[in-house]
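Honest question from a wet-lab person: if I give you the sequences of every part of a complex, can you actually get the arrangement of the whole thing, not just the pieces? Trying it with mine:
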Amino acid sequence: MNSTPSSPSDASHWPPERVIAPAKPKKPHYRSVFISDVHLGTKDCKASQLNDFLKLHKFDNLYLVGDIFDGWRMRSGIHWHKSFNRIISRVLKLSKNDVPVFYITGNHDEFLRKFANSRFENIKLLNRMDHTTADGRRLLVIHGDQFESVTHCSRLLKHIGDRGYDMLMFINRLINRFRTRVGFGYWSFSGYLKDHIQRAQSYIRDYECAVAHGARRQQYDGVICGHIHQAAIKKIEGVDYYNTGDWVESCTAIVEHHDGRMELIHWLEHPLKFEHEKSQKKRKS
Ligand SMILES: [Mn+2]
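Yes, you can. This is the full assembly:
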């Protein structure tokens, strides 16, 4: 009896070769994702970065912590890019797929404040809300502009205000256009200024303290806010202070793990982002 396979091809292909598609990297899965200050409707909105971030993560709850649309800037001319639509349709799709979305209003989208406590599909519009972490801490989720009147330097910042900020972002764009042309990466001019101007630093400190104190007065264990475009995780006099940062420059998010641990994600330096861009490039070539 011949126990060898009848044809040579069977012999060389046993066990049969399976075509294995390259394994897709597993998406990090979080309990909650918090983002703010996207400023849709302005040139500086980093929508495609945010789109990649949302696409490459899984989460059970999405919190949009204010200034997602920039109603102020849109009044003086809308800048709309198709990547903005992608964000909106992605968020709608998430909500349809049973991911609760909490939209907390900010000062740039304050036109939505009067519609607070209404619901659109799975999207809830709120001016502020409570979030209980997986480890049982009660956090206040709020955009944060409400605390600005308490800070000492608020008048200064209001003075620099929108016009100053526009100017800053204009210079920022010029510098980065030049940097890309000569082959350098993105560099945040206003981030540099923010770090180096003492007054801005003391403004940030004042704001952080005002928000943390406000949360403590209302008996919260901590607070999640945005508004000043300065991401942070810190403890301020016993209060957990989380700032989501922004998607205008720094592209940051606060995420909550399933055990309640909070983490600050810097998307522009995230390995997933580089992996994704590499595979995108490969697909194109
Ligand atoms: Mn704001």
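Two things worth pointing out. The longest strand covers residues 58-65. The pocket of manganese (II) ion is lined by residues 66-67, 106-108, 143, 145, 227 (CB under 6 Å).
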